[in-house]
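Annual report, structural modelling task.

Input specification for the nicotinamide-adenine-dinucleotide complex:
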Amino acid sequence: MSRFDGAIVVISGAASGIGLALTKGFVAKGAMVAALDVDEKALSRLADEIGPQVFPMQVDVADEQSVEQAIQNIVGRCGGIDVLINNAGIAPTGRLGETTTETWRRIMSIDLDGVFYLTRAALPALMKSGGNIVMTASISGTSADYAYSAYNAAKGALVNLTRSLAIDYAPMGVRCNAVAPGPVRTPLIEANFRSHPGLEEAFIRTVPLGRLAEPEDVVAAFMFLASQEASFINGAILPVDGGVAAWNGQPD
Ligand code: NAD
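The model returned the following structure:
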């Protein structure tokens, strides 16, 4: 039997990169995925490709009311929620002095407020099902990337929010963990590579395994944390980074 047969899994930012790989991974293991994304065209491609096991929903996670409406629709249509994956995120670059207030607010509104809205809305259903939450954090949340001030701050907050949820909702039977990927080849990072020549090579030099991750490289960690096999793992931040976080930066 598949590990997630019949499970209702909500994934934000499901139409591209890591979220797309997660959607395919969970569907392949029998789950029904409510795929939330702001990109309508990408969602319709996803629905065409995957078929009836995916429930595409155009939602801006930074819009509190849309998020609450989406969760009500999912619970109404599917009967509950077993797993919430807070994955939607953006990562514009910039040192603090070059960061406009608008950029700062945009990053916080998607990478942090969006997680707050979605998690708060889904918690009643998760408490009912004894479900769990997995965050897409980043190694930028456990140490800092050069010239990603606002993103580092948002992911740092997300890491401690993971721990906070883990302790507050454990008595109600809801676990919360995070995966902290290193650099993953997705449209998000490729946009930054195009605007910053040399950045791709610089990132690769920080990875002891000598390459960027592909989105599929990080899926198993999410599935493990979301599964019954991880039933006593709560508040963990699991790096999936080819060894980046293990390296202290000293040259070889
Ligand atoms: P991506 O750009 O390929 O995918 C992100 C998806 O989120 C897109 O489909 C986008 O439309 C959606 N999205 C953006 N804003 C949204 C909003 N307001 N509401 C709903 N959906 C929205 O990027 P990715 O690399 O797959 O990133 C996914 C997550 O992984 C992000 O949280 C990112 O910070 C994190 N992450 C990425 C890397 C990396 O190197 N790519 C590393 C560590 C962590």
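The chain is about 45% helix and 15% strand.
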